[in-house]
Design goal:
Shape of chain B: elongated
CATH superfamily of the domain at 102-115 and 123-220 in chain A: Protein of unknown function DUF881
Low-confidence stretches of chain B: none
Strand content of chain B: under 5%
Mean pLDDT of chain A: 81
Strand content of chain A: 15-25%
Structural class of chain B: mainly alpha
Largest sheet of chain B: none
Oligomer: heterodimer
CATH architecture of the domain at 102-115 and 123-220 in chain A: 2-Layer Sandwich
Number of strands of chain A: 8
Strand order of the largest sheet of chain A: 3-2-7-1-8
Largest interface: A-B, 28 and 35 residues
Shape of chain A: extended
Radius of gyration of chain B: 19 Å
Distance between the termini of chain A: 79 Å
Number of domains of chain B: 1
Helix content of chain A: 40-55%
Mean pLDDT of chain B: 85
Low-confidence stretches of chain A: none
Order of helices and strands of chain A: HHHEHEEEEEEHHE
Structural class of chain A: alpha+beta
Radius of gyration of chain A: 32 Å
Number of helices of chain B: 4
Chain lengths: 244, 122
């Protein structure tokens, strides 16, 4: 290297510097994976903790209730066994919607909105099954315990279908608007608030259907009266996960 | 002799200190450019050892290699062919060859000097 001219030396040095710079940037770019950080503050973590504790409590309650039923079964007296069995059947029937259900809840009325149209005649708005199913799903999410559309009690097997342009619920046609939906809930006020603020209202409004909800102190839902079609249902053998 | 090393260290330091990052889309180009730069550097060292070093060849080689490699990568992206793999392959092979030649030169020099010492001692 001693034979090198001074100028050459400097040029090479500068190029070395450029190469070093490039390497450093390449290194940084290759190692710049966005790190996942827990950005929650103390308050949010506390809330999360509270939520989990509440879930835990609910689960424990369920476990103790089931344990009690199990113990009752184990009791020796036949009378008591029978009584427990009857209780269980009643509970399950109530859960499945096979009994009348009374309680406080909300009443949702779907009615047509008529708009003043200048050139075309007003079209009578029709309910679509997708929209209705969406509303029902939402009500279930918000904690509805029982739902009935007009006189049709909805259970987990209830179909909402479009048959020849008409909406069928539980395989029976639904009358045209206005339609009333009765919902029983543990906390009707909260459910009402949810429905009032739900974007589904807007979707109904797009179809020219108005959605009004009001609290109702005493609602009686009819029971589901048709035979349960369980032919296609198989016992699920794999381990269950999550909440029942 | 030490000046390039110092400059290399300075370059790396500046690069690390600036906290400058290339967006993901262009990371390919930079990586291939770095490879080309490595290739040129080793080529230069080899030429120096072979006493064939020419600064004009070195300079033009550096820039044309870097630009060509980046262009090849760009063309590959446009055509949907991983053309940059060709550049990676070519540069990789050449770097290995150059390093092998450099190593042999250095070894030869050492062995020769040792032998000369032995001869002179006798």
């Amino acid at each position: 290297m001693k034979v090198m001219k001074n100028q050459t030396k400097w040029i090479i040095s500068v190029i070395f510097g450029v190469v070093g710079f490039m390497i450093a940037i390449q290194f940084q770019t290759a190692n710049s994976e966005p790190e996942l950080r827990d950005t929650r503050d103390q308050w949010e973590i506390r809330q999360e903790l509270q939520k989990q504790q509440k879930i835990q409590q609910e689960l424990l309650q369920k476990i103790s209730k089931t344990d009690r039923t199990l113990e009752d079964y184990k009791e020796t007296s036949d009378v008591k066994k029978k009584k427990t069995l009857q209780n269980t059947i009643e509970q399950l029937e109530k859960k499945a919607g096979l009994t009348d259900l009374a309680g406080s809840g909300i009443k949702i009325t779907l009615e047509p909105i008529f708009q003043e149209l200048e050139d075309s005649a007003a079209v009578y708005p029709a309910l679509s099954p997708e929209l209705l199913a969406r509303l029902i799903n939402e009500l279930n999410t918000y904690g509805a315990e029982g739902i009935a559309i007009e006189n049709e009690r909805l259970i987990s097997l209830s179909p909402i279908r479009n048959v020849n342009g008409q909406v069928y619920v539980n395989n029976r046609p639904l009358k045209s608007l206005p339609v009333e939906i009765y919902v029983i809930a543990h906390n009707p006020k909260k459910l009402l608030d949810y429905v009032q603020a739900s974007p589904t209202r807007d979707f109904f409004a797009m179809e020219s259907i108005g959605l009004t909800a009001e609290l109702s102190r005493s609602i009686t839902l009819p029971k589901y009266d048709d035979p349960l079609n369980l032919e296609e249902i198989r016992v699920h053998t794999s381990q269950e996960t999550g909440e029942a | 002799m030490w000046l390039p090393v110092i400059f290399l260290i300075v370059g790396v330091t500046i690069g690390l200190l600036t906290d400058f990052r290339i967006p993901d889309e262009y990371a390919n180009y930079l990586s291939i450019a770095v490879l080309a730069a490595f290739d040129t550097l080793f080529g230069g060292i080899r030429a120096q050892l072979e006493k064939k070093f020419d600064d004009v060849v070195f300079l033009t080689g550096f820039f044309s290699n870097v630009i060509l490699a980046a262009f090849l990568a760009f063309l590959g992206v446009q055509l949907g062919i991983d053309l940059y793999l060709a550049a990676v392959f070519a540069f990789g092979v050449r770097i290995f060859q150059n390093i092998a030649i450099i190593r042999r030169y250095l070894l030869d020099e050492k062995i020769i000097s040792r032998k000369q010492k032995k001869i002179s001692q006798k």
